[in-house]
Amino acid sequence: MWNIKQTEEFQDWFEEANNLLQADVVENVEVLRQMGPHLGRPKADTIKGSTISNLKELRFMSGEKVIRLFYVFDPDRNGVLLVGGNKTGIGNKKFYQQMIDKCEKIYVNYLVKRSKAIKKKTSCKTGKGETK
C-alpha cells in the first residue's frame, strides 16, 4: 500500500463534490493507494507539458462525466492529490493548461510546506532552535 496525501486545494474540491462523486473518488483513490506509481493506462497517465515531470491524472467515470484527479509522487514516494476536475464545457487544450498551471502552483506550495516541516523536525532532533 502506498501513502496518499491530499492538498488543501484537493480537499476543498472534494468537499464541494456531490455524494456520488465523493464515493467514486474514494473508490478510485483506493486503487491508486494499492498500485502507487505502477498504475498505468487506461486508469492513469502522465501529463505532458508540465514542469512537474511525474504529474499524472487518474481518470474514471462518475455519473455521465469523466473525472480527472491530478496527482504526483513526492520525493518521499508519497502520492499527493493536487486537484480534481472534468473537461465538461472546456476545450481539451484549455482544460489541461489550466490544470497544469494550478497543479504546478499547488505542488510548489506543497514542497515548501514539506521542506519547512522537515527543517522543523531536524532542528527539534538536533536541538537547534531551542530557546533557553
* Poorly predicted regions: none
Global Rg: 17 Å
Assembly of the depicted chains: single chain
| CATH architectural group | 2-Layer Sandwich
Q: For this structure, what is the CATH class?
A: Alpha Beta
Tell me what the structure shows.
It is globular, with a radius of gyration of 17 Å. It has a single domain, classed as YaeB-like fold. The longest helix is centred in the C-terminal third of the chain and has 35 residues. The mean pLDDT is 91. It is 46% helix and 22% strand. The protein is an alpha+beta fold. A five-stranded mixed β-sheet has the order 1-5-4-3-2, sandwiched between helices.
Helices and strands, with pairings:
Blueprint: E1 4-6, H1 8-16, H2 19-35, E2 44-46, E3 56-62, E4 65-73, E5 79-85, H3 92-126
Parallel strand pairs: 1-5
Antiparallel strand pairs: 2-3, 3-4, 4-5
